[in-house]
Amino acid sequence: MRAYLLTMLFAAIITFFGTFATLKISHKYKLYPQIRARDSHTRPTPRLGGVAMFAGFLAAMGFSACLGWFQSVFVEPGRVLAIIGAAFLITLIGFLDDLYDLDWTLKLAGQFVVAGILAWQGVQIVSLPIAGITIGSFGLSFVATVFLTVLVMNAVNFIDGLDGLVAGVVLIGTSVFFAYSYLLAQQTSPTNYFNLASVLSAIVIGMCIGFLPYNWHRAKIFMGDSGAMLLGMLMAVSALTVTGQVDPHVAAKNDFLPAFIPLILPLAILILPLLDFTLAVLRRLRAGKSPFTADRQHLHHRLQDFGHTHLGSVLVFYVWTALISLTCLMFFFIPGWGVAIFAFFGLIGALTYTVWPVIKRRASIREGSNV
Question: How would you label 157-171 residue by residue, b for 16+ Cβ within 10 Å and e otherwise?
Fold first, then answer.
């Protein structure tokens, strides 16, 4: 665990100072867009934070490679280099989009290229145990991997509309996923707890910690598409690499959930972003527009219209992310009935907080009518 914490800390430090440097350079050369109608901020703000986050990722990967503890992680340099190359490419695409607003078809094509590179180099779903049958041919795995990677990248990118929203959601979700991958490593390889999924998760956590101080409301800098797509790609890669730690031949019928958690957990963590993504695509297609046309009807915007403050809307996402991800993780520790009890009370608390503005308004109306 100490090695992971050191890697996490190193990623946080590099990202923190990298963000500071990016902020200064952006203001010096006025590298920021004009305020748009859908924006929540009221002053021109740089959105190149993803460049600093990539610097934190790259530096932390190099740092962890130098630590003897992670020797087994970097035994396949081709796969690691593919991940680094894909991270650079998706950051570059996002960087150009943040500066020049690329056409959505070009950006989507770039995402598929990045996902294809990863899948071609072996970063893909290894196997899925279903009723004792292993489904995991190269072709099926390749297609599923590309689809999942592009989906997660866009889901993360779509909710990047409020200060601290993406960084906080990814921080919470990835922290839980890190705990899961570490516990899984203990079960599957008791003599070696080091694996690529946990390393990437630790680095992502550090990147978010280093970036959040500058992105908390009111944000001094945004991560932009470069940062959001980079985080989404790394989350997808972490989930994909951890699937190889589950042996499909020993997954009995009562082990369905542990076998599928590598794919369920990241999707569960991103349930609100995925819901927002789905609703946005359907809404825009129904209106005869491109599914990637920007608007101000995302879930976080609706929460503000519902009565939540800027911070309150962000915290709604935090609460639901924590509830869903922790519920999945608890299957490792307690029986199903205990998880159900936790989920039930957690659901009540999350729903209460989500609809609190309505409760507050009705209470005020009742008080006014009684006066």
Answer: bbbbbbbbbbbbbbb
